[in-house]
Specification:
With 495 residues, this protein is α/β, with parallel strands linked by helices. It folds into 2 domains: 265 residues, 3-Layer(aba) Sandwich (Aminopeptidase), CATH 3.40.630.190; 101 residues, 2-Layer Sandwich (Alpha-Beta Plaits), CATH 3.30.70.2390. Helices cover 39% and strands 18% of the residues. The strands form 6 sheets. It has a 6-stranded mixed β-sheet, sandwiched between helices. The longest helix has 43 residues. The protein is globular. The N terminus is likely disordered.
């Protein structure tokens, strides 16, 4: 009898492992059942179906399988709920720090049905800084929700306005005085003051401090701005000690700015930085550049940048806009192009609506009250493009109708059209049958020209060769018999 051949020892490390007590065999799984067999069981034409369905052993198997599936579903739902709850809790925490009304789920913004949403932006100092509650930035972001336009309107901090319950003071005091009350209501008092000053409703507010702007710019990887002229503010305060001056300089040209540089660029107001007027213009530039960068794919698909923006907002921003309203405002702003953006800064320049008080540093409305400013703000989406061009015109009467040029001047003034009228005079002759618009600006004032063309019903023409604007005007309007007839027909000859 031959000896059994000895099997060679396996070198595999698992060769000596003990066999498991349980090995899964799909064919013997009492709970597993193929789709085909299940279909057969439930098929009423299958003669074995009724017997199978009544089999107690099979019924017990189905009950166990159903119970196991139910447990899996419940576990999965609990897991998803916990995961969603974690996200919700995080969002609720952040929203609660930013917003006073985080969970208002309105599908539209206040004012959207009327076609205009006004948001007040307040800029204040960081906690612990001198004058931290003074709102040195007072800007209105006005959204034209029907025509996808936006107007940024800045009011200099030294503008003397009526603060409800306090009297006439610089506008930056409104927030500070409100914060001194118990309980603090700085934002509310600032909002009431702006509504009183500009004659428009303020639907929302957003208050940010210096650190918020700095951190937001850094979060998106910096911003790019075309600096129009070299700036030098030798008195700009040091970052870590505002009681000392470290100065700030920046060269002209396309510049990539980190948060610290962007903040200095937006804040400087001494040297040749242009006082509060220049500062307001640069603040609008920084916000526009930040908005463009924050809504770019480069940022939206970068979790680190989004997290940085959220963190900057949570620590330094307060608003009454809910999460839904912020999302809706973002959706509207995505449709707005730079060409449909109006940048307006009230100033002491021509057509700037303000003048310097001779006995103080206060700025006053040039006309003596805020009526002209209210007219302009109310119609900013019509008049804003003209105002930005800063047009100056001469109106001439080319007819024998006495006072015709003066009537046009009154019409433009009463309507609040932001056109500076240099003078009203008679033309070289009084036999003009058709009015004329002579454009000395060489096409640089297109919105003003378009408005005058629509008003007078004639097309603008370039000046005669070698003709020069003797009074420095951009446009000369010569009124003809057609305009006199138009006034007569409309019954406004006394306008």
């Amino acid at each position: 009898m031959s000896k059994a051949k000895k099997q060679p020892k396996s070198s595999h490390p698992k060769a000596h492992e003990p066999k498991p007590d349980f090995v899964y065999d799909p064919e013997n799984d009492e709970f597993q059942q193929s789709e085909d067999s299940l279909a057969q069981e439930l098929d009423p034409m299958n003669s074995n179906a009724s017997n199978t369905l009544l089999d107690p052993k099979l019924l017990q198997k189905k009950a166990k399988r159903k119970k196991r599936i139910k447990r899996i579903i419940i576990f999965t739902l609990l897991f998803l709920l916990l995961l969603g709850g974690g996200i919700f809790t995080y969002l609720a925490f952040i929203a609660g720090k930013i917003s006073t009304n985080p969970f208002n789920f309105s599908s539209k913004l206040r004012g959207e049905d009327e076609g205009r949403v006004n948001i007040l932006l307040l800029g204040v100092g960081d906690p612990g800084h001198e004058g931290e509650t003074l709102a040195d930035t007072n800007m209105i972001v006005s959204l034209d929700t029907k025509n996808n336009k936006v107007a940024l309107i800045s009011i200099p901090r030294d503008t003397r306005v009526y603060v409800p319950g306090e009297g006439y003071l610089k506008i930056n005091n409104a927030h500070a005085l409100g914060e001194a009350e118990d309980p603090p209501r700085g934002i509310e008092l600032a909002q009431e003051t702006i509504e009183e000053t500009l004659g428009i409703p303020i639907h929302y507010y957003l208050r940010a401090n210096f650190s918020g702007l700095k951190q937001a710019v850094d979060a998106v990887g910096g911003i790019d701005i075309n600096v129009k002229e070299a700036l030098n503010d030798p008195e700009y305060p040091c970052e870590k000690n505002e009681g000392r001056s470290c100065g700030f300089k920046i060269s002209a040209g396309q510049t990539h700015m980190d948060g610290s540089t962007a903040l200095k660029y937006a804040r400087c107001r001494k040297g040749n930085c242009g006082d509060d007027f220049g500062r307001a213009i640069r603040q609008q530039e920084v916000l526009a550049a930040l908005r463009q960068k924050a809504t770019s794919n480069e940022t939206l698909f970068n979790a680190k940048k989004i997290s940085g923006l959220v963190g900057a907002a949570a620590d330094n921003i307060k608003t009454n806009m809910s999460l839904t309203e912020l999302q809706r405002a973002y959706e509207i702003s995505k449709k707005i192009t730079p060409e449909n953006t109006i940048n307006a800064v009230l100033s002491t320049q021509a057509n700037g609506f303000l003048k310097q008080d001779p006995s103080s540093s206060d700025l006053l409305p040039a006309s003596g009250n805020f009526d002209e400013i209210k007219k302009f703000i109310k119609e900013i989406f019509i008049y804003g493009p003209i105002w930005v061009e800063g047009p100056a015109i001469v109106i001439q009467n080319g007819t024998s109708s006495v006072g015709l040029a003066g009537k046009l001047e009154i019409k433009l003034t009463n309507a609040g059209i932001p056109i500076r009228i240099i003078t009203v005079q008679n033309a070289s002759s009084n036999d003009y049958t058709a009015s004329q618009i002579i454009d000395y600006s060489n096409g640089k004032k297109p919105n003003t020209v378009k408005y005058l063309e629509d008003l007078l019903g004639v097309k603008a023409t370039p000046p005669p060769e070698n003709a020069k604007p003797l009074l420095g005007q951009d446009i000369t309007v010569i009124l003809g018999a057609d305009y006199a007839e138009k006034l007569t027909q409309s019954g406004t000859e006394q306008e």
